[in-house]
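Per your request, structure below.
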């Protein structure tokens, strides 16, 4: 039996070890008590994220591909399965904070156990099986990167609910006052555009089904909407004027008494917002974030503009984007546009951009067989598409065709606004 060549094995192992190590680096600043908190159903305890990503490799890679593999603990599949009905029953999503046991030290031991056996597998697997395994292994790594982003956003929400407003990590470098960038609208020609992934690297199944769409001429804003611009909407009574809002959105505003983006608080008549670096004054030049689709749409209506469709967003790739602000920067908050950069800015990183496109399958979409087929397909209803990644997204994780999706009321992710004209 031929085994995997050393360079290929080492390359996969390096990628695996980097991704797995990054998850633990994200959790390093936390106290053990921080890792079991679940303030709302959307937020999962950090301990659960660390265990679930290990369960994914154990369930979909080690158990079927490593001969003689024994699971770390028989109950862990029930405890740390997320939504895979084909795998079996599970702790319900809103009950994850009840898992005070197993203790955190057992979760780290679980990760080490899985990592040890992944190394064994990749050193001994033969070429034929490795060829079959590659798509699942790639999915596992991309899946863990998704949970790294969720870890950042969930940790932020968890810490924000603590009356002490603790600092996750101090700013490594003080913020620079770059100055405002004038809002301009760049023309994108109409025509037929191919939508969907066409490369030969990894992509999610919801990016497949390349098809042509007809896009009319439109204009795209050269940067993201800023805190200062959004504050003007607030000061103009934007949250109390029903004319700007979809009916569901205005009902949400009234039910939850919304007056500002998530994490904004007013102190001594001045707006502050909770960040991963503690409470800071709202910077008028930074992108507004942590807003729902309803808020993004209401702002666009107030401004006399609109949100892009996801197809227009993808068509805007005719403008080469500058390097984005991703998780690797360590800033973990969106940054202001650069006055010295012309053209389209902030298309990647900083904040996910709400689009006015429902999350539906592309033509010819097919779910993968078995449990893996539950990854995306069963969520294609009542959600809106977001594009571009955020400051909590890994740079190696994002693509022009990447489709994120959330229900329109969700605010805890780094979600923001880019406007379209015409």
């Amino acid at each position: 039996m031929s085994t995997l060549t050393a360079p290929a094995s080492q390359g996969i192992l390096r990628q695996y070890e980097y991704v797995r190590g990054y998850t633990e680096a994200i959790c390093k600043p936390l106290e053990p008590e921080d890792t079991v908190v679940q303030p709302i159903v959307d937020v999962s305890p950090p301990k659960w994220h660390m265990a679930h990503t290990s369960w994914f490799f154990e369930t979909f890679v080690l158990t079927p591909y490593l001969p003689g593999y024994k699971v770390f603990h028989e109950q862990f599949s029930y405890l740390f399965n997320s939504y895979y009905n084909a795998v079996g029953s599970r702790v319900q999503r809103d009950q994850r904070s009840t898992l005070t046991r197993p203790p955190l030290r057992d979760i780290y031991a679980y990760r080490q156990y899985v990592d040890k056996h992944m190394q064994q597998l990749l050193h001994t697997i033969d070429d034929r099986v490795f060829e079959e395994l590659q798509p699942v292994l790639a999915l596992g790594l991309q899946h863990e990167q998704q949970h790294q982003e969720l870890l950042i956003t969930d940790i932020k929400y968890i810490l924000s609910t603590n009356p002490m407003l603790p600092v996750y990590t101090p700013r490594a470098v003080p913020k620079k006052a770059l100055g405002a960038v004038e809002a301009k609208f760049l023309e994108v020609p109409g025509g037929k555009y191919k939508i969907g992934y066409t490369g030969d690297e990894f992509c999610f199944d919801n990016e497949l089904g390349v098809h042509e769409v007809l896009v009319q001429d439109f204009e795209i804003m050269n940067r993201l909407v800023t805190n200062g611009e959004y504050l003007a909407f607030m000061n103009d009574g934007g949250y109390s004027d029903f004319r700007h809002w979809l009916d569901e959105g205005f009902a949400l505003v009234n039910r939850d008494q919304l007056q500002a983006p998530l994490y904004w608080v007013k102190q001594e008549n001045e707006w502050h917002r909770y960040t991963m670096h503690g409470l800071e004054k709202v910077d008028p030049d930074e992108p507004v974030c942590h807003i729902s689709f309803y808020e993004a749409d209401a702002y666009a209506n107030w401004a006399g503009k609109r949100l892009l469709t996801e197809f227009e967003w993808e068509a805007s790739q005719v403008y080469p984007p500058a390097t984005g602000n991703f998780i690797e920067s360590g800033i973990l908050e969106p940054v202001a546009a650069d006055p010295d950069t012309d053209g389209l800015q902030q298309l990647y990183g900083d904040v996910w951009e709400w689009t006015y496109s429902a999350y539906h399958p592309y033509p010819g979409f097919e779910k993968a067989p078995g449990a893996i087929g539950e990854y995306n397909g069963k969520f294609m209803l009542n959600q809106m598409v977001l594009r571009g990644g955020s400051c909590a997204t890994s740079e190696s994780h994002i693509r022009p065709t990447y489709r994120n999706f959330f229900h329109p009321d969700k605010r805890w992710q780094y979600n923001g606004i880019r406007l379209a004209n015409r």
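The chain has a mean pLDDT of 94.

Regards,
D.
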